[in-house]
Amino acid sequence: MALKPDDPPTGLPEPGADESEHSDRLVALMQSEMAAGPISFSRFMELALYAPGLGYYSAGKTKFGESGDFITAPELGNVFARCVAHQCAQVLEELDRGDILEAGAGSGALAADLLAELDRRRQLPGHYYILELSADLRQRQRDRIEQVVPHLLERVQWLDDFPDQEIQGIILANELLDAMPVSLFHVTDHGIMERYVALEENSFAWKELPASPQIRQRVEALELDKDYCSEINLGAEAWIQTAARKLNRGIVLLFDYGFPQHEYYHPQRKTGTLMCHYRHRAHTDPLTFVGLQDITAHVDFTAMAQAAVDSGLDVLGYTSQAAFLMASGLNEIVADSSPEATREHLDMTTQVKKLTLPSEMGELFKVIALGKGFDSVLFGFELQDRRGRL
User: Fold this and answer.
1) Residue 315 contacts residue 309 (beta carbons within 8 Å)
2) Measured between alpha carbons, how far is 368 from 300 in angstroms, rounded to an integer?
3) Least CB-packed of 192, 230, 237, 270 within 10 Å?
4) Cα separation, 289 vs 111, whole angstroms
5) What Å distances lie between residue 25 and 30, 68, 191, 202, CA to CA?
6) DSSP E strands: which ranges in 37-144?
7) What is the C-alpha to C-alpha distance for residues 265 and 283, in angstroms, rounded to an integer?
C-alpha cells in the first residue's frame, strides 16, 4: 500500500486527485527502497525530485511561472537573458569561437531569449547544448525556442550528460545548484548526526544516525554550536568538479541564491536553509507532497569556490545578481525602452525591480564565475566584486 503524506502544512492548498495519485506512486517507490531501512535525506531528496517519470523535475507537472510553483529570473521576461548575453558575448568574442552549455534549462526561457539577444549582437555560439534529463522539460524547452527563435533551433542539442569532448566557451546554470540533493546534519551532545528518513506507522519520519566520516569532518571544521542543524551540498561540489574537467577554456557562470560560508552557517541560521515550494507558497516540510513540490537549499558559495579551485578553476568573480545585471548592460536596456509604449515599459520596470531590489532577487541571488584559460576581467563584475568575502 502506498504511503499517504501527512496533512499539508497550514495554509497550503490540498493536492488534487491526479496529484495525489501521482504522489502515491512515488511514495510506493520510496517505501520499497526503505524496506531495508532508513535512507539518507540526500537520497530521499534525489528520489523526490528526480526519480524517473515520478520525481518533481522528471514528471509533467508545470513548475515554472504563474501557473507553477515558483518564478525564476528568466520567467519574468527577457531582461535577465539580455544581460547574461552581454557577458556571454564578451567571452565568445575573446575566445574567437565557442559553445554554450546550459545545465537545467527549466522552461527554456533563458535559452530562447539568450539566443535571440546573441543573434541580434551577431555573437552566436557554435552550439547551444542543453543538459536536461527530463523528457517533459526537453519538449517544453524545444517548444519555447521554436516559438522565439525558430531559425536557431538547429543550433540547439539536448544532452543527458556533459559531452564526451571538452568544452570551449561557457557552462551556464540558473538555479541549478540549489536543487541538488543535500545532506542534513545536526550537531548534538552525542556528536554530529546525519538525518535520515524512515518509515514509522506507515508515515515518513526523521531518524538521526551518526554522520559519515566525510560529513563529520566537514561539520567539525565549521565549529558550530550544539543543536545546530543545516546542510552540506556534496552533490553541487561534485558537479563543479565535473564541469572543471569538461571545460577546456572559458567560464562557468552560475546564478543562485545563497551566501558565503560565514553567513551560511551564521549562529542565527541554526535551523538551516531547506525550503519547499508548492503553488507559490513556501514551507519547511520536505516529507509531505512527495513529488509535487520543489525542495531546495541555499548555496554555500565558499564551498563552491573551494571545489572549483581544488579542481583547477580560477574564481573570476562573485557578486550579487543586482550588481551583475547593472554591470551587464541593464541601464542601456532600460534606456532603450520607450515610456510611450506604456505596457512594454511598465513590464520592463517591473522586471528590473524584481531582479534588482534587495527585497526581491537583487541581493539574495548571487553570481559566481569560474574560469580556465581566461584572464580578462569579466564585464559583469566590474561594478562590484565580492571575492574577498568568500
Assistant:
1) yes
2) 11
3) 270
4) 30
5) 9, 21, 36, 15
6) 39-40, 99-103, 128-131
7) 20
Nearest-10 Cα torsion for 324, 327, 328, 329: 140
What cell was used for 157?
A: 542539442
End-to-end CA distance of the chain: 48
Closest CA to 167 of 231, 97, 246, 240: 246
pLDDT of residue 8: 54
In three-state form (DSSP H/G/I as H, E/B as E, the rest C), the secondary structure along 325-390 is: HHHCCHHHHHHCCCCCCHHHHHHHHHHHHHHHCCCCCCCCEEEEEEEECCCCCCHHHCCCCCHHHC
Q: Which three cell numbers stand for residue 208?
A: 538521526
> In the prediction, which pLDDT does 312 show?
98
Structural domains present in the chain = 73-179+236-265+297-389 (3.40.50.12710), 183-232 (no CATH)
268's grid cell: 542565527
| For the chain, counts of helices (H) and of strands (E) | 12, 16
Nearest partner of 111 among 97, 96, 99, 94, judged by Cα: 99
Give the integer Cα–Cα distance in Å for 375 and 89: 15
Q: Which residues contact 22 (CB under 8 A, 6 or more apart)?
A: 54, 59, 61, 291, 292
CA 132 to each of CA 26, 58, 141, 179: distance values in angstroms, whole numbers, following the listed order: 21, 10, 10, 14
What strands lie across the sheet with 275-278, from one edge to the other?
A: 281-283, 275-278, 294-296
- pLDDT tens-digit map of 330-357: 989 888 876 766 777 788 889 999 999 9
Cα separation values, 83 from 74, 211, 345, Å = 11, 43, 17
3-state secondary structure of 311: coil
Distances (CA, A) of 34 to 40, 47, 387: 10, 12, 43
Q: Which residues of the chain have pLDDT under 70?
A: 1-11, 60-70, 338, 340-341
The single-letter code of the amino acid at 251 is I
Q: What is the DSSP letter of 269?
A: G
Q: Are 361 and 73 in contact (CB under 8 A)?
A: yes
Q: What is the DSSP letter of 227?
A: T
The rounded distance, in Å, linking the Cα atoms of 312 and 244 is 7
- Which three cell numbers mark 297? 537549499
Q: How far, rounded to the nearest angstrom, does the alpha carbon of residue 336 sit from its chain's CA centroid?
A: 30
